[in-house]
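Quick one - first record:
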Amino acid sequence: MNVRRHRISGIPGIALAATAALGLGTLTACSSDTAAAGNTDKFDVVASFYPMAFLAEQIGGDHVKVTSLTEPGQEPHDLEISAKQTAQLQESDAALYLKGLQPSVDEAITQSGIKTKIDATSLTSLEEHGTEVGEHADEHAGEHADEHGGEHADEHADEHGHSHEGEGGKDPHIWLDPVKYAEVAEGVGKAFEKADPDHAADYKKNTEALVKRLGELNTKFETGLKNTDTKVFITTHAAFGYLAERYGLTEEAISGLDPESEPSAARVKDLATMAKADGVSTVFYETLVSDKTAKTLAKDARLKTDVLDPIEGITDKSRGDDYFQVMEANLKALQQALGAK
């Protein structure tokens, strides 16, 4: 296939083999491949990070060559695009990314000459999550206004509330809701069909198969979380807002949408009190960021800890080799923590 008329060979970079049948275990295993995007006779796709790469592989099958800009184990929020990766972008047929999650990726793709730019956030609706962290801080400041003085309370709200409220905004973690992820998959499939019409039939078939699997996953979550002792769960950062809404749960995050943000002492204290009132047994942490805060809160509140993976990347520590395996592991962890019946 000759998608692009001009290709430059020999550009080094991170590349991932495109074989849908092997899932994203292949992505992790081949991350050190020296072949570069834009260097093959296939439909060359640069994906911003794992959830986007997974879609590209599953939908593209044997017809695509997928390169992920985010290495396995790298926290995607921290990614800064290198000169080599910028070169990869210029020589690719399509870029698949999630606007708002990785600013350096957004900028690089916007400035690139890639003909097909697929922004996942444009393929489904985004909502606001993560603002509860700031709201709790504001409430706490208000409650103690008389005790500490109005000026101190205002400072407290500004320090621990305003910044998190800014973080809140539009939540990009749409892939953790199988229904929204399926909507994105359908949009990506159509974009591939348009950009590479010679293989449109296969892209359509692969998309339908992926959407069906996501529908089955959604049913598993609906059934598995329908009857539980509690509906509240605590996480390190607000990545699971869409999942919580989809299945009638309440996520209480220690930090906001940014996994690196530091929670206030008031927030940690509020969560400990809330955990006791709502029968919460477990504080969830994730694989790509420090578990220090989660374990501190769990120790103070006498709670257990467990992993709830936001699936921003697959590593040796992941409970599964691909999106579906890790999502099912997340379901089991939630069922145990919430007391599913």
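second record:
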Amino acid sequence: MTASRASLDLLYSDTEEELRSAVRALLADHCAPATVLARAESGRPHDTALWRTLASGIGAAGLLVPEKLGGAGASHREAAVVLEELGRAVAPVPYLTGCVLAAEILLGCDTPEAADLLRALAAGRQVCVPALPLTQAPGAPLPRPLRDTGGGALSGTVTSVADAAAADVLLVLADSGLYAVPAAATRLTAAVPLDLTRPLATVTLDGAPGTRLADPATARAAVAGALLSGAGLLASEQLGLAEWCLTETVAHVRGRHQFNRPVGSFQALKHRLARLWLDVASARAAARAAADALATASPDAPLTVAVAQAYCSGVAVRAAEECVQLHGGIGMTWEHPAHLYLKRAKADSLALGSTGHHLGLVADFAELPAPA
């Protein structure tokens, strides 16, 4: 056993539990399922008031940002707790894209311009979103960079960019490096996403002005590191989603009666829910292992993240499917929030790499190549 695995800590600290309580209370007040559904139907799912309170009021936006840059100087473990709670509420806020992926990219640049953006991000004054397809996976080739037509004027198109509609600044990977581009200087074409709470858009740049943040080699390394962190912390969002589905389903089958007895007392349903509980408990261990490996910069982090994503994606989808099915007819209605969780789970299973991609990474790391 390596030293990093011997010191693996899957438990939540008192500080993490206090952070969880604060975020859960905020979401209980401002992010009820009916509210999320109403915003999704409006075509403007992002809740800017909730985002301001979460980002600057609680200080969640700057968890991964060092204190010298105005952040909390916390770690991936704390960010994972926030994502668990956001997953439980399918909250329509750009946390994964803005406070994990963008923050990690900017930290990897290590330039004064990137530091200025990090200060604004940590204070909640600006939302930065990477102009990358949501399906871009760690360990996969990066997309073809956009063209720098001269003097930082960028041209090209990026599809399936998550939360671009909420962004003030887009982080754009170009052939001459990484650039910060004002969102207002780009053209956004909304896509039709499966998950209405995390909108997608095609971003088109036609000579858009950008501020150079890093050279090409540094930029690609920063993006690669951010994708690894994002995939690892996405597992915590999937865990929170699965926990909500399990809790709500258990509550429903306890209260729903057939043949003068709770349907949850039927043995077949007991077996299904017991299996789902075991799946969720295992997902918690996998997600916490990934967050801890990232927080401690463990050399096993790529493997741990791949394991967490390969497992938690499937658990989140199964939990959401069971939630819909075991709620019976009401679970199939638009008014019940179960479909929001199923759609988020399905979309998350493709975000930052599919289950098959991460299983392939696990096989590569374990030196077990797939059969020819």
